[in-house]
Design brief:
- The structure holds two protein chains of two kinds.
- Chain A has ten helices and ten strands.
- By secondary structure, chain A is of the alpha+beta class.
- In chain A, strands 1-4-5-8 form a four-stranded mixed β-sheet. Chain A has a four-stranded antiparallel β-sheet with strand order 2-3-7-6, with no helix packed on it. Chain A has a two-stranded antiparallel sheet with strand order 9-10.
- In chain A, β9 and β10 form a beta hairpin.
- The longest helix of chain A is centred in the middle third of the chain and has 37 residues.
- Chain A is globular, with a radius of gyration of 21 Å.
- In chain B, α7 packs antiparallel against α8 and α8 packs antiparallel against α9.
- Chain B is built from eleven helices and eight strands.
- Chain B is α+β, with helices and mostly antiparallel strands.
- Chain B is 45% helix and 15% strand.
- Chain B has three domains: 84 residues, no CATH class; 106 residues, Butyryl-CoA Dehydrogenase, subunit A, domain 2 (Beta Barrel), CATH 2.40.110; 152 residues, Butyryl-CoA Dehydrogenase, subunit A, domain 3, CATH 1.20.140.10.
- Chain B has a four-stranded mixed β-sheet with strand order 1-4-5-8. A four-stranded antiparallel β-sheet of chain B has the order 2-3-7-6, with no helix packed on it.
- Chain B is globular, with a radius of gyration of 21 Å.
- Classes of the chains: A alpha+beta, B alpha+beta.
Chain lengths: 380, 369
Amino acid sequence: MTSDLASVHDELRTVARDVLGAVRTRTAGSVPAPVEWSVLAELGWLGLEVPEHCAGAGASLGEVAVILQEMGRAATSSSYLGSVVLGVGALNLLGAARERDELLHGIATGGLRVAVVVPTAQAEVASAETPFRVESSGGRFRLDGQASFVPDAIDADRFLVLARDQSGDVVMVVLGRATPGLSVSEQPLLDATRRFGQLRADAVEGAQSALLRFEADPATSVQHLADRGALAIACDSLGLAEAMMEATAAYARVRYQFGRPIGSFQAVKHACADMLVQIEVSRELVGAAIDAMVRNDPDLGIAVSMAKAHVTGAAVGIVGKAMQLHGGIGYTWESGIHTYLKRALLNRSLFGSPRAHRKRLARRYLSVGTNEIAGSRALS
Amino acid sequence: MGVSEEEYVNFQKAWFQELRHAGYAVPHWPREWGGGLTVGQQMVLYQELAAHDAPRLTLAFVAIHHAASTLLAAGTDEQRRRHLPAILDGEIWCQGFSEPEAGSDLASLRTSARRKGDVYVVNGQKLWASGANHADWCLLLARTDPDAPKRHGISYFLMDMHAPGVDVRPIRQATGQSHFCEMFLTDVIIPASQLVGRENAGWQIAQTTLGAERGMVMLELAERLGNAGFKWLLQACVRPTPDGERPIDDSLVADRLAGFETEITALRFLCRRLVERNDEGRGGPADASVVKLYYSELLQRMMGFGADVSGLAAHAELEKPLSSGWESGAWVLDFIGSWEWTIPAGTSEIQRNIIGERGLGLPREPGVQ
């Protein structure tokens, strides 16, 4: 990273920490209030990756990642995952089209929120079943299918549904909220900082112009989008783990038992030290995956799987340890640590479990003896 | 027995000279003393050496790292002129820090150095001096003021290992090898000109020079773990066991392996980042401990896994190649040898104390000075 970019990131991080931290402080303990969408729009965070001709900043995932990490740190409630990570990400994978540019413009300026219906439970989606089918004839399409665990579906104005067409390719169908045959319902989860929905399309019909195609190979594009989701979640987990480490170290410095701060006991100190080591390690994996994504490295999937597998797993361990080291108060609703634990646990499951991502990595080992392991040099 | 100790020493000395003439023996030294590669160039060098599983400079290790960094940071011009060129010519060094009653609590060391005119007279016992049986010189910590608070009464000396009164005995370690020695020092005379820095300032000097070269050394070890180490582990997993099955076809094995690859990748990035950070003067107070701890424990877990998947066959590997990295493919011995990382140079427990205290600002334990 150039030092110019590093200082841009530092500045962005400082602002994000202030703004999101203030929202967090107002709602500590209880179910967090969402950060206002108009604030995110004014700060320019919605259009970071939107091209400049669509009212965006033309920046990269590197900048979005800074925001994501800070949102994890503050356990921010927002539709950023649906509209920015997945929405802008998916739209940027399409070929140029007026519809696409209008949607990007709408997101960047804060007037439009979208939800992308993409598999959120798997690491590898290219060969997965697509739960939606779309059939076209005579300038019209018909869409059927249903999906659960759709991020930010409740607040979305438009739905970008990935569906398989007659020829077997995945395409994107853009639907308005009030489309006849489309039903959306909230899917309450234990993590109250995020909102997911279920979506069902029964013989939804529309004009062919609402059916958009990926610029590159559709299967690769869908996988790219899932990798983007996985990486965004890893960023979030890194941020929330940092927050929990800092909170725990701060508590261990001031909480006295047996006449001394508990942080002076090795049992506590060593657990905190392990948090710091895990965070340093996690930061490297997340950083490497962001770089790979920004460069569009052919092996970016490997870097993403490493980050997703390790960081989301480590974050659960760190938050769990934070709860333990806070003692009784840590287990209370009021302390708010449960908020982080639930978010960390959801993160671990979203876009493929650590096990699923390691399975993806391990597939490269089966050809050993004949070939170099794909990606191992690229990462070095 | 693979090769004799003598062959090992001869090989190490010859390999050192070969690297020296190529300009790669002491790349981290300042240019005027024979080094001068940039940090970036050193990274490339160590990555290449690791990728080719080149023998490590184990015998010259203390000389080119600890002795050199001490002399450069705190030595006199005369001391530098006397020793730095000699190190290039093959002078071997060891470190006389630990004692039977001063391990993790190093500052409680008792070996005494009493000033008599322009010499010091040294008496005491040192332990865990790696390579002392081959060493020409020793970096010695000894107490010069028994009445001062313990960290303030220690001085740093350069001790000639051939001086009368120095008695070295190898200690056989868990692997059966003898990397370590104990040293008995009886009325050893050290000229005052071989004091490093001020009298009673030895603790500070030891603290500042101990971690000085750790970044690049760790980078090299991480690269080795990522190249030879992981490759061998993978090979152990794809080799059919006596029942005809390959460990890799077991999803639990594949899962562990993917986890190790991920952790090694992170370690390599981390080492590079810390070297760069340090080079830019932005090093963190716990950086060296973070890397030492993570490397040691990852090495131990990986070697333990290698010993597990390679089954009985690994128990018949009775020797690991000398000059090899910590990972050699003789998994049981590699695993046993991994405690040589989690115990010396600050145990993992001490590293966690340092990380907690310097990295997170946690209070020291009461009673620890």
